[in-house]
Amino acid sequence: MSDRARAARGRRHLAAAAFLVLLVPLTACSGADEGGNADRSESAAPATSTPSAAPEPPPEPTTGACYRLEFEAAVAPTADAEPVDCGQPHTSETVAVGTVDAVVDGHLLAIDSAHVQAQVAADCPRLLSRFVGGTPKNLRLSMIRPVWFTPTVEESDEGADWFRCDAVLLAGAEELAEVRGSLKDALDRPAPREAHAMCGTAAPDAKNFERVPCSARHSWRAIDVVAFKPGKYPGERTVRRAGGTQCEDAGAEVAEDPLDFRWGYEWPTQEQWQMGQTFGRCWAPD
């Protein structure tokens, strides 16, 4: 996907009790009896209010729920759409719901802190891979992507501490494909694995190149993955040179004539690397 970021988290607060103290001024009463003046004073006892109960946290999302989300909503940090029947066309399916770990060195972090968001960004791709099946290479050569959501700041203040991971199928650069049924184990089965595979409208270095599912009209196909060790971005020159031999060999393997063929290599940009794509893709005409 523009292969995505996020926000919202806080702390639960109990309403503090407010104490109202009513002070009655001192009142003097004088009398003529032998005891002399008789002074009496009264002060009302303080009245207190009962602390209000903490609000119930909003209900957590449900694994297996489906939604009709537009692309902009799918890449937003929070979501408020209502679920729809998974048998009807939908664009997003919840593959897992987890709990954020927001305590670091005894301090509770906000839901939109870098630590919490990094945790969710690391967990959801792994949970998606487990859900759709296949191999990591199958997933990287597909149009299936993870998106994730956390509570809003207000929901977090009420005690919500969940995160939600969804599977989406890209139809283009900024468009989601409609799905009927579930993507569960989709990459374990030949038919959906082929339908959801990544293809291109042109060679990856062409001006009009766009990634599309192989079920759509296309002329090139992603055929192999060039993996790099996660860490600091090695630089464009390094990642660009690293995949040449591997992609040429991959292109020769799928070509009708191994002595006369075309191939392409799409290396990760620094922006893509920072979003978690630490690999490139090899392409060939299809």
Which secondary structure elements does this structure contain, and how are they paired or packed?
Layout: E1 19-20, E2 47-48, E3 66-67, H1 71-74, E4 92-99, E5 103-104, E6 107-108, H2 114-132, H3 136-140, E7 144-149, H4 153-157, E8 162-172, E9 175-176, H5 190-195, E10 198-200, E11 211-213, E12 220-227, H6 236-242, H7 244-254, E13 264-266, H8 270-274, E14 279-285
Antiparallel strand pairs: 1-2, 3-4, 4-8, 5-6, 7-8, 8-9, 10-11, 10-12, 12-14, 13-14
Pfam family, one: Septum_form
Protein name: Septum formation family protein
Domain Septum formation-related: 64-282
Q: How much helicity do the residues have?
A: 10-25%
Number of helices: 8
Number of strands: 14
- The succession of helices and strands, N to C, reads EEEHEEEHHEHEEHEEEHHEHE
Strand residue percentage: 15-25%
Biased composition (Low complexity): 43-53
Domain Septum formation-related: 64-282
Region (Disordered): 34-64
Protein name: Septum formation family protein
